[in-house]
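batch job 7 of whatever, protein = S1 motif domain-containing protein
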Amino acid sequence: MQMIQVGKAVELEVDRETEFGYFLTDGTDDVLLHNSEITEGTELEIGQEVTVFIYLDKQGRLTSTMKIPSIQVGTYGWAEVVNVRRELGVFVNIGLSKDILVSLDDLPNLQHLWPAVGDRLYVSLKTDRQERLFAKLATEDVIQEMAVKAPLKGVRNTTVKGNVYRLLMVGSFFVSEEGYRCFVHESERKQEPRLGEFVEGRVIDSKEDGTLNVSLMPFKQDKMVEDAEVIFRYLMNRGGAMPYGDKTQPEDVQFHFGLSKGAFKRALGKLMKEGKVYQEDGWTYSSDRK
C-alpha cells in the first residue's frame, strides 16, 4: 500500500539532504520537504522519521510540509474563504502555502449566494484523477454527526451566531458557535444569507432532536425603532405631511411602507410619544408644522 498519499499526513524517513531541503521516502517513493516547509527550530537527520502532510505544489509537483493542517482527506474543519474566482469557485485557506479550491460545481447556482472573502465553510479534502486537492463541503449527515444537541429549555430568545452551511428554498441552516444546528425559515429573514456567511439571530424554538429554530429578524422593540425611522423619513420626504395614520387600510400601509398594520401603528405611536409627529383628520404631520 502506497504511504505517500496526497491530502493526508504520513510518517516518512529522511533519505537525503539537498541545498533546498530534504527528500523523504517510504522505501519506494520519494517526496521533497522544502526548507521553507520545515518547522522552525527543527533539525533533521538522515534516517529520522518525520510526520508530514502530502500535497501538490503550485507547479503540480508532489511535495510535503511539516505544517500539518487539521483538514485532510477524511477529516473536516472550518476554513476561511480567501479568494473568489467566478470562473472557478472559491479558494479556502487550510494552513498550507497554497489555497484550496471549492469548485463552482459545489456552490449555489446563484452567484450572489456564493461565499465572500472572510466567510467560513465546513469542509474536507478530496483529490481528482491527477491527485489535485479540492475542498468539499460537508454533507448534512456530517454536520449532524459533529453538531452538539441544544438544550430544550432556557434558550428561547437567546442570541446565537454562526456560519451558514446549507441553503434551501425553504430556509437556511447554520452551525452556531456552540455547535448547535440551527434552521432559519425563509419567513424569518429579510434576505437569504450567503453560503458560509456569519449570521446572528435569536432562538424562537428548541426541538426534541436538539436543533434550534432561529429568526434573523430583529426583536420587536428594535424593529419598532427601525420602522419608525422608515415612516419618519417617508413623512419628511413629503414635506412633513402624509395622508396616512391609524385608520389607514392595511393594504395601503403594506404598499407604501412594506409594514403590517400592527407594526405601522406601533411605530407611529412611538413617533407620537416622542413628540415628533401628530395626527389630524386622518393625516400625519411632523411636529414642526404646528
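notes: The CA atoms of residues 119 and 170 lie 22 Å apart.
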